[in-house]
Design goal:
The chain has one domain (about 1-215). It contains 9 helices and 4 strands, in the order H-H-H-H-E-E-H-H-E-E-H-H-H. The protein has helices spanning about 1-20, 20-45, 55-60, 65-75, 95-100, 105-125, 165-185, 190-205, 205-215; strands spanning about 75-80, 85-95, 130-135, 140-145. It has a 4-stranded antiparallel beta sheet with strand order 1-2-4-3.
Amino acid sequence: MSHAFIVGCYYSELKKAFGERGVRAFAHMTILYAQQRGSRMAQRAIRDGKPLDFASYRTYGEWQGTEAAVQCMGGFSSRILSIAPDHEEHIDRCPWAWQFQKMGLQECGVVYCTHLDRAIARGFNPYITFDVLQSVNDHDCCIQIMRDAQFSESQTFSKDPKNIKGFDYHCGHVYKTFAEISRSVFGTEGEAIAAHVLDAFKKEYGPKMAGVLQSHLDTNFQMI
């Protein structure tokens, strides 16, 4: 749940320091971070000669569920209501929503989840549409729809392990991207926010994991 912890800390610090401006900055950070993820997925699909459709979107995802999340809070739980023409999925349980609730930051979850998957899809291909109608952070479930996905009953979406990134990478990505935009928008005050987030992360997860987070500050997350 360390990834959601970083996101929640940024939201809390930005809102506390800048109010509604901080929330708008947080939404922008989320969109930029997500579009970079989608772009990396697209780069790999193009490299492999695959179309930038929703089938490739599913296949080239960088995430993989972790056993730690399953043991901690049960992992993901979802229901598929339709596969064609639109793929509609309702998510009843999510590790990110669990962490946001634990931090008392469901409102952060609403903002983050409203923008995240939409922006990943735009970064992958701006001509496909991923709709998020509601979030489990303030409803009984998330409703996510891949418009005109046209999946079939027999389709499977196996991810290549070479494309999966560990959570050290994903945590480093979200921390760095949010830190850069925080500094760009708010100057030295934004730098202080990133420092506060890192300090909170160190207190929660220890100096070793904080060091791993910092080790990714030089990583170019726009390239595969």
